[in-house]
Amino acid sequence: MRSSVAERAMPRNAARSPWLLAVIVLTGTAALWWHGPIAQWASYHAFADARAWLAVPNAANVLSNLPFALIGLVGLWRLSGSALQPDPTRAAWRVFSVAVTCTALGSALYHWAPTNASLVLDRLPIAWACAALLCALLAERVDTRWGSAPALCSAMAIASLSVVYWWATEQRGHGDLRAYLWVQFLPMVLVPAVLGLKMPAIAQHAVSATAWWGVLALYGTAKLMEVADQALFAATGVVSGHTLKHLLAAAGAAWLLHAATRTGSAQLR
Fold first, then answer.
1. CA-based angle 162:222:250, to the nearest 5?
2. Is 100 exposed, middle or buried (0-12, 13-18, 19+ CB in 10 A)?
3. How many CB atoms within 10 Å of residue 184?
4. Nearest to residue 146, comparing CAs of 85, 79, 205, 89?
5. What is the pTM of this model?
6. Cα gap 242→48, rounded to integer Å
7. What is the SS3 assignment for 59?
8. Beta bridge pairs of residue 56
9. If we measure between CA atoms, which residue out of 127, 126, 144 comes closest to residue 136?
10. How far lies 228's CA from each of 5, 39, 122, 218, in Å?
11. Using one digit for the tens of pLDDT, what is the confidence trace for 65-120?
12. Which of 147, 136, 179 is nearest to 40 (CA)?
């Protein structure tokens, strides 16, 4: 009797989960709107490690973007491998791989000559990667239609507009990062929500919960390194927090793409 009751309860819980995710998204959106504009701090472009190497200015922060290019290209290659069966989430992971590859170029160009104008090139592919990551998560755990072309195109458009909005407000002298920050952090809010709700994988090659927790840990550590940019460089004299942020974020992308491109069946835990 108890097992039959549990079996009847499970579909109701599963059906409620997407609505709980929607509540989280709407609550976060309302909170950011209520907060008011979030300006970019004045010293944003003042990175700790400005050392040049050969003809490369800010060499550590420029060259530490190379792993993104390698990881994105390898991800695209593995996603096109004949060993992988057709899967409705593949398109989202391909877009994510392209965005990661573009991040290498955009971030390198920005760190070569840090300005608000070059920062647009940095933030656009990061926003694309976050949007594609969110679509992949939802396609694997909520509804496979999140991996469709219309969903991905809409997500890319919203991600792009979040950066355009920041740039337009910055040009008017009252920059507002709220939309961009929400696009960047929304996956990091919904991933633990999805895992905490124990939403089962519905796609054959879904990324395991272990892999998602791993990338959360790497990304969280990367953000801590970003905040500790000056302190780490002052303490070590060798490497800055921002350089480590690049390497940890690249490791997170590699971790996810490895999990997404394995040939085994979905791991539901």
1. 80
2. buried
3. 19
4. 89
5. 0.88
6. 8
7. helix
8. 53
9. 144
10. 51, 20, 20, 15
11. 999 999 999 999 998 864 455 677 889 999 999 999 999 999 999 999 999 999 99
12. 179
